[in-house]
Design a protein that fits this description.
The protein is α+β, with helices and mostly antiparallel strands and 489 residues long. The protein folds into two domains: 231 residues, no CATH class; 199 residues, no CATH class. 35% of the residues lie in helices and 15% in strands. The protein has 14 helices and eleven strands. The strands form two sheets. A seven-stranded mixed β-barrel has the order 1-2-3-4-5-7-6, surrounded by four helices. A hairpin with a 4-residue loop joins strand 6 and strand 7. Helix 13 packs antiparallel against helix 14. One of its GO terms (molecular function) is kinase activity. Keywords: Kinase, Signal, Transferase. InterPro entries: Spore_coat_CotH_CotH2/3/7. It comes from Flectobacillus rivi.
Length: 489
C-alpha cells in the first residue's frame, strides 16, 4: 500500500500534476483567477528586514527624508470626504506656478507641470508572494508612485503603492501575469475609484487595464500585518495590450509630455527598448504642432489622423472630463500610455485612476508653513477641467487645439452627450458602487493605522456616500452644460 501511494505521488510529480504549494509557470493569463470581479482575493507580500532597511536608505536618498519624518504635510483626500485637504502648489491657467513657488520647467524654459515626488524609480528588492495556498519566491518588489508615495512615506503610512515583477530575478509569473501594480486607494476613502473609473472606461469602449480588489498583507521583516484593501491593476505592457488589442507589435510608451515638442526623454519606451526608434511619436508631435492648423485646418486634421487615433482620444477626453480627473493630461503631464496599434496610429490608454470622479469644487487648501500665499487666480489641484475645456492650460496643446477646432470640438460635444446617455446613469452607477462597497466593506472595516489612509471608523462609509452623491451631481452638471449648446474656444 505504501509503495503504491509513493508510486502514485512520484508519478504525479513527474507528470507535473502535483504541487507542494510552490508556484508553477503559466503561459496564458488567467483573468478569472487573478482579476475576479465578484470576490475579494487575498495576497501576502514578505520581504526581509534587511531589504526593508535597504528600501529606507534608498528612499532617503531619493526623497531626502526618513520614513515617517517628511517635511511636507500629509495630503488629505480631495474627493469631498474631509476638509483638511493639502497638497502641492498648483498651476495657473497659463501653466505658471503661483508667485513665490519655485518654477518647474522642461527644456528650453517650457512649462512642465511635474508630479510631486522623485523622477527616479525606487529600487527593487526580492520578496515572497503567497496567493491561494501557493508561494512564489525571489519576486521583484518596489514602491511606486509620485505624490501618493511621497505623502505616504513622509507620514509613516505603510499602505503604499507598489509593483511586483515576477521576472525581475528569474522567470516566473502569477498565473500568466509577469508584472502587477497595486494601488492603495490613496486620496480615496471609498477605496473603489481606481476600479470604478477603469470599469467605466472599458464599458464605454476605452481599452483600460483590468482591476480587482485585494486584501493585502505585508511583512517588512517584523511579522505579517494587514494592510487593507488594494486594487490590483493589470500592467499595460505586460498583458493588457495583447489581451485588448489582439496584437503587441507596435511601440508602447509611457510619456510625461505636454506634446508641445518632441523630447526623447519624455517618451519612456516600455517595449523594444533596445531600438531607439521614436518615429511614430515624433511624427505625431510634429503633425499636432504644424502651422497648417491655422492656415489649412482640414489638411492639419488629415495629417494628424495619419499618426494618432484622434477620434479615440476625443472620446477619452469627453469621458475623463465628464467624470472629472485632475491627475492626468490636461492638469498633469503623466498617467497615460500610447500604443502604436496596427492601422490606427498611436492610441491613448488611461492609467492611474484613483483621483477620478472627484469633486469639481474648490477645496480647502491650507498652505504649508513657510510657503507664500498664492494669488486668487491660481489653478487648484483636485479639480478636473471644466466641461467646456476653456480652462485647460495652454501648454496642454492636444486638448487646447481640439477645443479651438470646430470639427473636433463638435465631436467632443457629441461624445459627452453619448457618454451621459449610455454610461453616466445615476441608477446604474450607484448600484455598481453599492456592489463594490458590499464586497469590500468588511475588509475596509479592519484597516488600522499605520497601515491605512482611513482616519476613523466612518471614513469608508462617508467616502462611499460622497462618491454616490458626486455621481448625481455630475449628471446634473453635464445636463446643464449640454443644454447651453456650448461652442469652442
Amino acid at each position: 500500500m505504501k509503495r503504491t501511494l509513493v508510486g502514485v505521488l512520484l508519478s504525479l510529480i513527474v507528470l507535473g500534476n502535483f504541487s507542494w504549494g510552490e508556484a508553477q509557470v503559466s503561459s496564458t493569463p488567467d483573468y478569472a483567477k487573478v482579476f475576479p470581479q465578484n470576490r475579494l482575493n487575498k495576497i501576502t507580500i514578505s520581504i526581509s528586514k534587511a531589504d526593508w532597511d535597504s528600501i529606507k536608505i534608498d528612499m532617503k536618498e531619493k526623497f531626502k527624508t526618513d520614513f515617517g519624518k517628511s517635511p511636507f504635510p500629509r495630503m488629505g483626500p480631495p474627493n469631498g470626504e474631509r476638509p483638511n485637504q493639502q497638497g502641492f502648489p498648483p498651476m495657473s491657467q497659463d501653466g505658471k506656478r503661483p508667485e513665490g513657488f519655485p518654477p518647474q520647467r522642461g527644456g528650453d524654459g517650457e512649462m512642465m507641470p511635474q508630479p510631486m515626488g522623485t523622477s527616479e524609480e525606487p529600487r527593487y528588492v526580492a520578496c515572497q508572494v503567497e496567493f491561494e495556498g501557493k508561494k512564489w519566491h525571489n519576486i521583484g518588489f518596489r514602491l511606486k508612485g509620485n505624490s501618493s508615495l511621497m505623502s505616504s512615506w513622509g507620514a509613516g503610512v505603510y499602505k503604499m503603492p507598489f509593483r511586483l515583477d515576477f521576472d525581475k530575478y528569474e522567470k516566473s509569473d502569477l498565473y500568466g501575469f509577469h508584472e502587477l501594480s497595486m494601488s492603495p486607494a490613496f486620496h480615496d476613502n471609498s477605496l473603489i475609484r481606481e476600479k470604478l473609473a477603469s470599469d467605466i472606461y472599458r464599458q464605454a469602449g476605452i481599452p483600460t487595464a483590468q482591476t480587482a480588489f485585494y486584501e493585502v498583507y505585508l511583512d517588512y521583516g517584523d511579522g505579517v500585518q494587514y494592510a487593507g484593501v488594494y486594487t490590483m491593476v493589470e500592467v499595460i505592457d505586460d498583458t493588457m495590450i495583447q489581451s485588448q488589442f489582439g496584437s503587441s507589435t507596435g511601440n508602447i510608451y509611457k510619456p510625461e509630455s505636454t506634446f508641445q515638442r518632441f523630447r526623447e526623454k519624455e517618451f519612456e519606451k516600455k517595449n523594444f527598448k533596445k531600438e531607439k526608434k521614436f518615429q511614430d511619436v515624433q511624427a505625431f508631435v510634429s503633425a499636432l504642432n504644424d502651422s497648417s492648423r491655422i492656415k489649412a485646418p482640414a489638411l492639419w486634421r488629415t495629417n494628424l489622423e495619419k499618426t494618432f487615433d484622434i477620434n479615440h482620444f476625443i472620446k477619452w477626453l469627453a469621458i475623463n472630463t465628464a467624470m472629472t480627473n485632475w491627475d492626468t493630461y490636461g492638469a498633469m503631464a503623466h498617467n497615460f500610455y500610447l500604443y502604436n496599434a496596427p492601422n490606427r496610429g498611436l492610441v491613448w490608454i488611461p492609467w492611474d485612476n484613483n483621483e477620478a470622479i472627484s469633486t469639481n469644487d474648490k477645496p480647502n487648501f491650507p498652505i504649508p508653513e513657510g510657503m507664500p500665499e498664492p494669488p486668487k487666480n491660481f489653478r487648484m489641484p483636485n479639480r478636473g477641467l471644466s466641461l467646456s475645456l476653456k480652462d485647460c492650460p495652454k501648454h496642454f496643446v492636444l486638448i487646447t487645439y481640439i477645443a479651438q477646432d470646430p470639427v473636433y470640438y463638435a465631436k467632443y460635444l457629441k461624445e459627452i452627450a453619448a457618454f451621459r446617455k449610455n454610461d453616466w446613469q445615476a441608477t446604474k452607477l450607484t448600484k455598481q458602487i453599492a456592489e463594490y462597497a458590499l464586497l469590500i466593506k468588511q475588509a475596509a472595516s479592519k484597516e488600522k493605522a499605520p497601515y491605512s489612509h482611513l482616519t476613523n471608523e466612518k471614513s469608508f462609509e462617508e467616502g462611499i456616500q460622497s462618491l454616490q452623491k458626486q455621481i448625481g451631481k455630475r449628471a446634473t452638471e453635464i445636463d446643464q452644460f449640454l443644454a447651453e449648446k456650448p461652442s469652442g474656444k
